Amino acid sequence: MSPRFALPVILALSVGAVAAPLGLAQFTELAKPRTTTILRGTFTDSAKYTGVGTATVTRRATVRTLRLARTFRADPRSIRLRMYLATDASGRTHIDLGPMVEAGAQTFRVPSRVRLGRYRYAIAWCAAVDEPITQARLIPARR
What we know:
Layout: H1 3-15, H2 24-31, E1 35-45, E2 51-52, E3 54-60, E4 63-68, E5 73-74, E6 81-86, E7 94-99, E8 106-110, E9 121-126, E10 131-137, E11 139-140
């Protein structure tokens, strides 16, 4: 018996049914890990600046990603933006996820050492003036 047909035959024998063999494409599709949204939030204005859009944190296997929607827009006066994950809206305690642009969809990898139960704010931070531009409070996504 070839390895290509081994899994369907074993499954069929174990349940007492006859199953059609899975092709390589179907088997590969079944083996792909699913992407799950675990946190989401909506950007709000800070004291001096504006911002709109949404952020989501997803997990696929062991990789966690912060994604900004294509509708994301930070205040046009902001320059040298960085994306922070922070413990509160002030951004005092944060993890720097890297540089970002003022508008549009963007993706940032969340390091595995980051405890998302503690870092619940996504903040667009202006490095030029050392202030938050816009922030989103990340809450658990509904399943």
